[in-house]
Amino acid sequence: MDRRAVRAWVMYDWANSAFATTMMAAVLPIFYSDVAASTLPNEQMATSYWGLTQSIAMLIVALLTPVLGAVADYTGYKVRFLRVFTYLGVLSSFCFIFVGNGDYLLASLLFIFGTIGFSGGNAFYDSLLNDLVEPEKRDYVSSKGYAFGYIGGGLLLVVNLLLIQNPGLFGLPKGLLGTYISFASVAVWWFLFSLPLFRRVKDKKNGTQHSIVQYAAIGFSRLGNTFKRITRYPELLKYLIAYWFFNDGISTIITMATIYGKEIGLGTKDLIAALVITQFVGIPFTILFGKIAERLGSKQSLYISLAVYILIVIFGFFMTETWQFYALAFVVGMVQGGSQAIARSIYSRLVPKDRPAEFFGFLSVSSKFSAIVGPFIFSIVGLMTGSSRYGILALVLFFAVGIGLLAKVDLRKGAAEAEAANG
């Protein structure tokens, strides 16, 4: 195992988590509600529009990623594709400095492009885990990546919080300048800290050269084969279905929590501060979940985190006070990174070793299609009832079904199926 390459891989989580914290979770949802969507009739409509923007972004990513993943496996250009998506996300983040009052369509469009860069790139980033780390170390390295993501994203979020809430500390006037600098800082942070991965990790080229049209044809062909091939791995297929449900619940909470809190009357300062707590609580607990997985097993640690998420959603439905949001932020920090890291590690052990990018691409497309459902249901229920509380309550179903399906997965049998396919 090339330790320098692994450290560079971990550092990319530090880099792109700036988008996850500032753009997806904390600053941008509030900016979208208060500034970009300020001309809409009410905050509930802004919340629903934000949810629909999430769904559109996930749909586009779902359509793009599997083809690119299959092509990356065929050509060996995983790092090259990761670089392209990274630069798309960086540019989109920077362009938010041009969004003003009432520009919710521009804000939605830029966020869609940024999400394509973030989520599309992660398909290739995740698939590199198989190339760089042996199976018995993947739980720990995957958890370490998420932990570094919490640190990096959290540190930048703290700075951005100070820029927005106390601009005088930086010699800035009151207003939106601090927010615009925060958006630009995401672009700079993401770009700079992704460079170690691009320098240390090299593509394993196959030496085969084709035109873009030929590569596209190859990608679509392999995508069709993946849909057929996935049925040869029953345990992987069962795990995928479980993953679709519980991951949709997790991703909806991540993307909708802040704007939901804004709708029910929580202050901007408290919302962002609570998310900072989530980031830094996540650092030790993500590593802890990696250790729990080594001691109790991956499934058991994932069960624990998903059960906690059910309690979080129920409590969120009844939440009315600021301190309750802080409490939820702390508990989310305990399980968010660990659940995602262990879920990623489990999947890596169930896929054939010779097609990791293709199968991670399939995971990405399938999970992105499923991730359309959560924000969409959240938004539609909110529009129909006039309150997003019932939308958040609907997420209980996603976690309950996910746990039930996960119980039917035999990980040892699934790993054996993957090994047999390689043989």
Describe the model:
The chain contains 15 helices and no strands. It has helices at residues 3-36, 43-75, 78-94, 104-132, 138-165, 177-200, 212-229, 234-263, 268-296, 298-318, 322-350, 356-385, 389-393, 395-406, 411-422. The chain starts with a helix and ends with a helix. With 423 residues, it is mainly alpha-helical. The chain is globular and about 60 Å long. The model has no long low-confidence stretch (mean pLDDT 84). Helix 1 runs antiparallel to helix 6, helix 8 packs parallel to helix 12 (356-385) and helix 9 runs antiparallel to helix 10.
Topology:
Blueprint: H1 3-36, H2 43-75, H3 78-94, H4 104-132, H5 138-165, H6 177-200, H7 212-229, H8 234-263, H9 268-296, H10 298-318, H11 322-350, H12 356-385, H13 389-393, H14 395-406, H15 411-422
Helix pairs in contact: 1-2, 1-4, 1-5, 1-6, 1-8, 1-9, 2-4, 2-7, 2-8, 2-12, 3-4, 3-6, 4-12, 5-6, 5-9, 5-11, 8-11, 8-12, 8-14, 9-10, 9-11, 10-11, 10-14
Give a quick set of tags describing it.
single chain, 423 residues, mainly alpha
Count of individual beta strands: 0
> What's the overall geometry?
globular
Broad structural category = mainly alpha
Provide a count of the helices: 15
Radius of gyration: 20 Å
| Proportion in helices | over 70%
Could you report the average pLDDT, rounded to the nearest whole number? 84
The residue ranges in which pLDDT falls below 50 over 5 or more consecutive positions are none
Distance linking N and C termini: 22 Å
Task: Profile the largest sheet.
Answer: none
Strand content: under 5%
Order of helices and strands: HHHHHHHHHHHHHHH
